[in-house]
Amino acid sequence: MPHTNNKAATDRKAKRSGKKPAFLSRARKSTTNPAKADLLAGSAPLDPSIPKARQEQTQLIRAFHAIEKQLASPALTNPEERRKLEEERERLGGLKKYQEASVHGGDKARGGESSKWLVKQIKELKIGLDDKDKDKSKAKVEPTILEDGSKVWPKVERRKLRLLDVGAIAGTAYAGYPWISTTSIDLNPHAAHVLRYNFFDFPVPETEDDKYDVVALSLVVNFEGSLVNRGHMLLHAHSYLRPHGHLYLVLPLPCLTNSRYLSHARLTALLGSTGWSVVRQHDSAKLTYWLVRRSGARGEGERDGREWKREVVRAGAQRNNFAILVRPGSEVERGKAGQQAGEEGEEEDEMEE
Fold first, then answer.
1. Residue 130 labeled ligand binder
2. How is 186-201 classified by DSSP, letter by letter?
């Protein structure tokens, strides 16, 4: 800062206009999409610890879920209201935009790539290796020592672990693991190698060799609007697996911690009823991870045929209504989603937060 007794500095200060330079006076351009701005209006404040764009994608996912729940409700009988909801869904970008948000930001804000946790469990449990291959993996520890002192490790040939990734979108979750042979399916694929299939329509392998070691339902069951179809997913997964095969289930954590109808204990019991034994379970800040195995001595999944209805396990006005219904022997609901008309006469509100 110039000295006040410096005449030149005093003259320069007197000549200043008092206005900011032009480059400091320019208004910043908004980087927020107008549609997103409308979407975020009235929403909760953004968490400064998470990038704004990623939080916007997460909120877009929630808004899309909210619209889907309203469209799925049998209480929605007014054609005009349905039309407005469908228009709003398209304004947000439809299923394609939802999937892009899931791939490029929303999923990371909710806990990161869920495939990493599964791969860690597969390695620790040696899933996909039969007893013969497991013996080979132990022998691999002993190398051959050559005359010059160098070590040569024996090469062990194993079949690739077979994994069916349901709701894969772009099919990139397991792309970095060459020892995993992944079949990816999705209702609206974002890559040529992802097959366009509804889970219930995907062909069941005819031979044991063509069956899978793992079926992954990561953030899929909670997106299914039909409460009955959610239960059918748990039952149908057995069709694709080898004996003692594994199911990987991932849900938003509030589906268990803040639901009126589901908790960790109830989900454990429900899984046992549908032929699964819990092998590993983990909760992150946003997600709940479950790795379960086909139960029974023969590993074919012993099911008790019990029907699971909605039963209140946690009361409170601020709870969500996430539930999984199991109706063995009933048909998969086609062209219809959401709760059954008249089921407990309660409005379907499944916001996960």
1. no
2. ESS-SSTTSEE--GGG
d(CA 195, CA 78): 35
**175: β partners:** none
The structure's pTM equals 0.67
Domain count, the chain: 2
Q: Which one-letter DSSP state was computed for residue 346?
A: -
Produce one character per residue of 89-126: b if its CB has 16 or more CB atoms within 10 Å, e if not: beebbeeebbbbbbbebbbbbbbeebbebbbebbeeee
Query: In 10 A of CB 144, how many CB atoms?
Result: 9
Q: If DSSP codes are grouped into helix, strand and coil, which group holds residue 101?
A: helix
HSE (side-chain half, CA atoms, 13 Å) at 87 = 6
State the CATH number of the domain containing residue 180.
3.40.50.150
Same domain assignment for residues 177 and 286:
yes
Same structural domain, 97 and 146: no
Specify whether 105 is located in the same domain as 119: no
The residue-averaged pLDDT of 47-62 equals 56
The answer to the question of whether 186 is labelled as a binding residue is yes
Cα 66 to Cα 218, 223, 296, 353, distances in angstroms: 19, 11, 39, 11
Residue 286 neighbours by CB under 8 Å, 6+ apart: 109, 110, 111, 252, 253
* Full residue range of the structural domain in which residue 119 is found: 115-294
Q: Of 8-12, 106-110, 237-241, which gets the smallest average pLDDT?
A: 106-110
pLDDT, tens digit (0-9, with 9 covering 90-100), for 303-328: 999 999 999 999 988 899 999 999 99
